[in-house]
Amino acid sequence: MNESIYSIPPHLLSAYRHGDWVVRTDEPASLPATLAAEDPERVVAVQLLALAADSEALNAWAPGLPIELVMADPASEYPLLYRHTNLLDKHPVRAVVPVRSGFLKAIKVAVSLDFAVRLELGQPEPPLIEELIAALEFYLHQPTVAQPVEFFHSMLLGFYHDDPLPLWSVLDEDPRYLRYVADDGAESLYGRLATGGDAAVEPDTELEGWIERGLAAAEDCRSCEFLRSCGGYFKWPRRDYDCSGVKRLFGRLHAAAMELRRDLDAAPA
Ligand code: SF4
Q1: Which residues are CB-contacts of 5 (< 8 A; sequence separation ≥ 6)?
Q2: Distance from CA of residue 52 to its chain's centroid?
Q3: pLDDT attached to residue 104
Q4: What confidence tens digit (pLDDT) does each residue in 9-27 have?
Q5: Which fold has domain 5-150?
Q6: Which residues contact 98 (CB under 8 A, 6 or more apart)?
Q7: pLDDT band at residue 199 using 50, 70 and 90 as cut-offs
Q8: Which pLDDT score, from 0 to 100, does residue 156 have?
Q9: What is the residue-averaged pLDDT of the chain?
Q10: So what's the pLDDT on residue 1?
Q11: How far is the centre of ligand 1, averaged over its atoms, from the C-alpha of 150 (Å)?
C-alpha cells in the first residue's frame, strides 16, 4: 500500500502522524495558526468548504500550496468565487464544481477568474448530460479558457497521446491513496466510494486490478470502448446506471483529440 493522503479537518491532525493531509476547513482565518505547530511537509492541499468565508488569511500563507474552493450549490454560489481571487497571487487555486443544475455558470465564472476547475460528477441524469455537453463545447471552443477543466482536460490529452488515465485518478478520487476522516474521526474510503457500491472491494496497489475486480465487472464496462479512460467510474454506486450520455461526452472528446492530432500533423514543421 502506498502512503495515504487523508482528507481531514484541522482538529484531528494531532491524531494523524502518518501520511499526507488535505486539510478541509470552513474557517480559513484560523488555519495558519492551527497549522503552525504541524509539519508543513504533510499538508499537500487545503480545501475551503465555506465560500462565504474570508480567505484573506491564506493569501500570503504557505506560498505554492494548492487550494480548492469547494462549492455545494454552484448555481447560487458562483458569485462567491470573486471573493477569493487574491489567493491566485501565491497559490494554484481550483474550484470544485458539483455537476448540479446550473453548474455551467460556475465553470464560466471560475475560468474567467483564472481558477482551474474540477468537476464532481456522480452519476449524471440526462438533463445534466446536456449541460455537461454544453460545458464541454465551452471548454473546447472558448478561446479565453486558459485553465484546465477536469475531467475534460486530462481525458482530451489521454486520447491525444493514446495514454489515458482512469477518471478515478483524473478527478482525485484514487482509492489506492485517498482516505476520508470524518469530523468525528471515523475513517473511510474517499468521496462517493465511502458509501454504496461494493464497499467490500478493498483497493490495492494496482488501480487496474481494483477496477477489474471491483467496478468494471459490469458487463457494460467489459465491452466499453472507453474503459481505459473511464475505469468504470459511472457504474458506482449504481451498477444499472445508463452510460449512453457519458459515452456521448467521451466520444466528443475523442473526436476533438483526433481533430487536434490531425491539425498538428498537417501543420508545417
Ligand atoms: S462509460 Fe460506463 S460502461 Fe463505459 S467504462 Fe465507464 S462506467 Fe463502464
Answers
A1: 19, 20, 21, 22, 44, 177, 178, 179
A2: 21
A3: 97
A4: 999 988 887 889 999 999 9
A5: TIM Barrel (3.20.20)
A6: 71, 72, 73, 74, 119, 120, 122
A7: very low
A8: 97
A9: 89
A10: 47
A11: 18
Q: Where are the domains of the chain?
A: 5-150, 178-266
CB 6 within 8 A of CB 181: yes
The per-residue pLDDT for range 152-196, each reduced to its tens digit, is: 999 999 999 999 999 988 998 887 888 899 999 988 888 777 765
From 211, 227, 253, give the residue whose CB has the most ligand 1 atoms within 8 Å, as the site to mutate: 227
Please tell me if the CB atom of residue 220 comes closer than 6 angstroms to any atom of ligand 1.
yes
116: enclosing H helix or E strand: strand 116-120
Grid coordinates representing 161 are 497521446
**Which one of 159, 243, 253 would you pick to mutate in the ligand 1 pocket, going by the greatest count of ligand atoms within 8 A of its CB?**
243
- Cis peptide preceding 237, ω within 30 of 0: yes
Q: At 7, which amino acid appears?
A: S
Closest-CA residue, ligand 1 atom 2, reads: 243
Phi then psi for 145, rounded to 5 degrees?
-75, 105
